[in-house]
Amino acid sequence: MENINHKAGFVNIVGNPNVGKSTLMNDLVGERVSIITSKAQTTRHRIMGIVNTPEYQIVFSDTPGVLAPKYKLQESMRSYSEGALTDADILLYVTDVVETPEKNADFLVKVAKEKVPVLLVINKIDLLKDQTQLEEVVNKWKATLPNAEIFPTSAKEHFNVVNLMTRIVELLPESAPYFGKDALTDKPARFFVTEIIREKILLHYDKEVPYSVEVVVEKFDEKEGAIHIMAVIYVERDSQKGILIGKGGSMLKRVGTEARKDIEAFFDKKVYLELLVKVEANWRSRENKLKAFGYIE
Length: 297
Prior knowledge:
Layout lengths: L6 E9 L5 H9 L17 E6 L3 E7 L9 H12 L6 E7 L8 H8 L5 E6 L7 H14 L4 E4 L8 H11 L17 H16 L9 E9 L3 E10 L2 H8 L4 H18 L2 E10 L7 H6 L5
Parallel strand pairs: 1-3, 1-4, 4-5, 5-6, 8-9
Antiparallel strand pairs: 2-3, 7-8
């Protein structure tokens, strides 16, 4: 018989690119579920991280940063953010101390109309000099989202995240759990391999290269003591392939070495990682490729 006092709900995290949504998600979940870099548009998918206790289950969703789409991939990314407004029990709108409410104001209008509780997280307050500056930022956002509860935080420094989590638990509706109590995410193991490889590419390459990359795991052969993985890195042009591989394969080797170490830590197993690079022209604008890569259903 289900415990009628059990609470469960979907807590969706939305906001503009590069405000720290993924850092906050990982802090709330207590595990590294979303990849984090200093580059905007790091998150491309909607990624769930699940927190379980005997009393409650919280299903967090990290979503891509809200942006005006320039090609079909970004249209898909925007749809994940828009969808997060429709199925949330609690909405976390994340901003930071630098950006203003005018950025993507049309999306904020939709947030302001939400009927579910909205928690406005003002992240990166460790960058402010004093309390006066914080009060100015808070007042500006109060005027934009008057019905939201405001939580000044620093996800990087773990400041005020515990209070935010306490409030989320208070607001959860009574419900049976949506996932098994041992679940951490809704994504398969292969997804995290692709994300770790993509994270290393985002860290080590500039300009358009990291945004033109998609990673597909072609082989995931798991045995008792080790995992053999073969992954293909797709780029859009031959010139990008050359940059990605580097002189004598040096850059690709660096990506592979760093990714393998993180994948080993993630699975707690020895990993043999093989990387290939292939060209798939203009894949970000081709609907059939976006379907194949899992961005469009």
